[in-house]
Fold these 3 entries.
Entry 1:
Amino acid sequence: MTAQERQQGAQAHPQLLAEFGGAYNGPATNYVQQVGKNIAVQSGLANAQSAYTVTLLNSPVNNAFAIPGGYIYTTRQLVGLMDNEAELAAVLGHEVGHVAARHSQQRQKAAQQNSLLGAVGSILSGVLLGNNALGQLGQQVASTGSQLLTLGYSRSQERQADDLGIAYLSSAGYDPRAMATVLRSLAEQNALDARTSGRSDGAVPEWASTHPDPASRVNEALQEAQGKQGSVLNRDVFLANVDGMMIGDDPQQGVVNGSTFVHPVFKFAFKAPQGFFMVNGTSAVSISGQSGKAQLTTRPYNGNLSSYVQGAFAQLSGQGTQIQPGSIQNTTVNGLNAAYGTARVNNGRSNVDVTVFAYAFSGNQAFHFITIAPSGQTGVFNPMFNSMRRISASEAAAIKPRKLDVVTIRSGDTIRSLAQRMAYDDYQVERFLVLNSLQANSPLRAGDKVKIVTY
């Protein structure tokens, strides 16, 4: 690691923490840090474990990444999907491999040469310019600098990082096949996420959107692992350390429940349009569908909703591109003062309509949707705009966090009986199977341990 890389990482680190939910302080935190440092030293980027900063992120999406300077990240959601310590080391080793191969520098150079609007960051710019690969709006408020460090990888870069991660696993004594097994779990989780959210357009969750197609890499990882030394899995140690870890949305950041988003702290709720799915980020909720995309977020509010909407449009403008609404209208929605405006933008191939719809919740707190739809089709979001409402204190108090619970299989337990203990209203069996890397006909043995999700 060079001094410049250390400085770059140190500058981006607080931005990334803010973007991805902050550090998670709870079960597994110290354990993840130690496993991450142990696998990172295998890369040779630095020989001392103290040179690395490993962070378990308080995020409900499956994601992991590393940036120059020895900074390594994984979300609690992704850790909860894993089955043993070797898989944890595999994911973290894969991310370190990207840094060791200087992939982020290659991505930054390409991104800077092809900078788009520079508006709310490269993600919204990509949507405005028709770039389908940039459909995930949940992290829009991050600075461009941190986004350049966490852009998606190419297929060849993914393969190289897999190979490096497998080499690190072997040198650390872990079973090198763990890379393949965790990729398989990710692929199965991606497919389940698509089913549970009703997606049919092939869109994939956060980790898969920046790390292409884990399913196709499983066999390649198994082939790469052949002949390599290492057998450690540390399943029991892993399960003991993740027991009790939060799973899913942190109520402090709001909760997605089917088509409804509820924020118990700010006491509001809204419903996504039919056929759309939501992903909750730290500072924004993304709402995506085939007929448009949206985000809910906030910005400073001085009591004037019209100027608030104008300011939101100004944030979308940059590098010679001005996005201005034709007019700003005032209205009320379920007792909330609201204001909205729409601007037509040419993305180089067609026109799209960008709408900002804002709500005042107090004299100094407002929230707003930004929506993007083909010209003349913003109406698809009208049901969502009209669904925004305050919630009562009792509704807010009813929102509880989910957690991972490691249980011992008892005689007579079945996949269905264990799945019925999962804290979900739908897809209980499917969620249980993916969470534990099991098949519908997998045998259960009394005394073995499995993971369930409870309140």
Entry 2:
Amino acid sequence: MVKAIQIGLGHWGFSWSKEVIPKVPSVEMVGYVDTSPEATGRVQEELGIDPKLCFNSLEDASHRTDATLAICTLRTEAHYPVVKRCLELGYNVLVEKPFTTTIAQGKELVALAKAQGKVLMVSQNYRHQPAPIAAAELIAEGKFGALNMVSIDFRRHGPSQGYRYWDMPDPLLADMSIHHFDLMRYVLGDEPVRLSCRTWNPPGSPFRYDPSGVAMIEFSRGTIVSYRASWMNSGPVTPWAGEWVMDGAEGQIAWSSRDHFRDKAGPDVLTLLPLDGKAEKVRLDEVKYPDRRGTLNTIATVLDTGAVPRGFSSGEDNLGSLALVQGTILSASRGGDWVDIEEIMG
């Protein structure tokens, strides 16, 4: 059993408090932290949290609880200073994505976690779903031979689906595409080497910054990923993880994941399309702790056992996904010029 505090009880943080944390029995909550009395009052009133477990500062919580894990569910710009202070205070940390806004900040936190002997994990929750887990295993086994091309489509229409962050910088690449970028690295078991990206803001869009984009990403083993994504697409809605077609020398692996729309959840789907045979729908294994529950259960298990599983999204590993975010933003600012990942990583 891992004792934890949660820092950040706003809209998304409250979702963690209500929908995620109570469903992971290996975690015992001993504190909730937010500077807003309204936020701490909400968890008390709606979730029945003991007021004695609520604090208005991290420092106060650190002195009055015996937690070893800090669950950081704050706005992105607060990740770096809060995670840094948590590590300095001796906490292991699970932090929402993206875990920093710059590569330099990310490297600093990774180095600090190592110096402190603590675990720093980023909640890349899309990894904890049946289809990407199965796809990653198939690719690792060499199913259908060497990969040639991967096509990914993500389509949502923000104005008609309750999206509300109209003024968020890089609403596609930084807030949404990081999930897809992280899945690319996880499923392919490979790292990107260079990329090209263009973004735009369609006429009539309520977004202040570009909600649509296309990117071409080259990975070290030669696989090319073609990525198309938009918050302003009026076509058929895709699952949150997108629609994937992975083309190999002897066939294709097609899959989709996190098919949630208007409070309806559909199953993950994965289909094998051999070059000379019939399409075969693969029966996927159930994931006991899916999505965000998966990230929380994983870090609790690592802290309990010391064993780090395959695909663990540590801060160090997640630098690669953050680099894809920074690289696509940079390429888009240069009109789609190719950007080497080495330039981003420094």
Entry 3:
Amino acid sequence: MRKMLFLATTMLAATLYSASAYADQKEVTVWSWFVQSTMQKSIDAFEKAHPDVKVNYTYYNYSPEYITALKAAAASGSLPDVIGLQPGSLTQQYRENLEAVNERAAKQWGDKWAEKIFPVNRKQMLMGNPKGDQNYYIIPQESQVLCIWYNRKIFEKLNLSPPKTYADLKAAAKALTDGGYIPMFQGAADGWQNENVFLMLANQFSAGIVDKAQAGETPWTAPELVAAMKAWKGLFDDGIFQQGALGAHAYPTGAQLFAQGKVGMMALGSWWMQESKFPPPLSEFVQNMDGFDFFYLPPVKDGNAASPPVGGIDIGYGLTKNGGKNPQAWTFLAELTNGVGLQEALNDLNDLPAFDGNSPKGDITDHVKDMSARFMADLPKAENQRFASPAVAEALDNALAGVAAGSIEPEAALAAVQAATEKALAAK
């Protein structure tokens, strides 16, 4: 009887302890478009280091699901604790819903913490802030460099080399099309991918000109930007992009086709290396990334140089006003961007680090190491990828879509972007 009473008492104590521990466990809610499998590894590492915290992650495809979800949650005051952000326009769109993280970051990493972040990223962290506002509303997790990826096994099969001129690019696109492949997949229904390609083009004509235009220092109707917009239209007219590009999405459609070996080229960035770390079954092209390599967009005008590296922050995170009330939310954000969570993402080759001094560990092939080293060498000299104003980014998206569809001429489209820029600058 005593034994049974002892067992019952022990079981009750264990149950009460378990219930108490569960009740004491804090929760953090996170939304992002960050790869679900990699995020889970980051969460597992965080929860191992912080067993009293439970992280609930909701994944969205970036466009349009994530953008739509953020808008709805902000309108209803129900944003999660931590949200994935891009610098500039997306961060500014939700700045009123975000906590400034300067003091928390200084306490976490020291007063000179921002100096550990690559210069182009640090610049982007303040993009679009009202004049005099030196607060940081985004902490970058990863950096990226934009480029044109190509399937080198298909190129070898068709006796193609990475294009060095626009004529080479057109010839490669024709050979790919004739061979039954999609030449260069463009998700032209996605504003972000259109912006990326346009930035590659614009920086060929004048490095940094888009930054000057959005700052009001150069008109969007400048000859160099008009030439870039005409070159953008040429990518459709010359058969570089696939038929039906205007209705296509880069993710998941384009990425899946590219990974399966049905696409010759695609404008993406350094994050494509992560494909080699996804769970099986992997295609012969993705396995160890042996089937892929990258180049920069060749000059569309004779005498110009190829596109310079363009990039900066791939993804960052913001602490919402709701998250500011939850002490564990910052702890998770800090570990995700420059701690145990970041290390897991780098090990998965999700992208390049944003904080200097971090690097991937584990099983990585020599080919991937070489590509990663090339990206890291180019990152410090990368031109800015981001837009400070949501309205300007939207106006450019509309201009690119309209010019590609042939419904508006380049000069008129860029005049609309100029008007949006002037309005945005006047409101600051």
